[in-house]
Amino acid sequence: MLDVSQPSVSKVLAHAELQLGFKLFDRVKGRLVATQEAKILHQEVSELYRGLDRIRRVAENLAQARDGGIRIAATPALGVGLMPALVAGYMRTNAAAYFDLVTRQLDQIETDLRESKVDLGLAFDAPPLPGIEISHLGRSKLVLIVPAKHRLAGANSIAIRDMAALPFIQMTDRGPLGQLLALSLQRAGLAFTSVASAETYQIAQALVAKGVGVAIVDEFTARSDRDKATAIIQLEPVIAFNISLLRLQNTPLPMLCKHFIAGLKQQFAEIDLCAVDNVRL
Q: What is the pTM of this model?
């Protein structure tokens, strides 16, 4: 694999061990087996190479960043339920703007920001993250969605304690909202009967639309159902959360991004978060 002879490898290995002052390999039944010291050293070297690889990716991402572009990573629910309206509204008065949009889970958004793949991140209830500046744009809440022909479809609200007998589509607790819901149910002493699980709210909504069960999702996902295959029911008590804007601390942003952020904050200060279709920037 190295395209060198075996004696050459042995010579380099012996020289390395001489410099280090300890053995890297033991010969066991004709095979070289790494010593504990070699394993510890390899772990440190691997971290170094990962750091170098990250520097290379950051440099590539900076070189590929398009002038006049706004690069945003949003959680899937916001990427589908909110970002199209925000982008369309902004471009009505800034036709020359260019958007590069991706959907990511929160941990991936953090990585993309640190590697300069994106300028901004949008997420639900982002917790404090070292080196990441987090602004809260507004508040929203979780709601129950049921199939359009479900017996509860006409209800305005439902108490969470009355949902125990419903066939429930469970959300994974990987993200902040999943953890928020799990904690709320735990505090209420509730355990739902799960018929399926989903990692994204869009999948949960699709399952509800097909009559598989009911699900608790964010309002943006709930209101993105253009086919009206599901009905929205408010939860009592309300489970509210923040909509968070993320960016790297102490990192200058392009003027276009600053302008977009200013418009974004103003818009969230004025709009009814339930009326996603009315978003204008």
A: 0.68
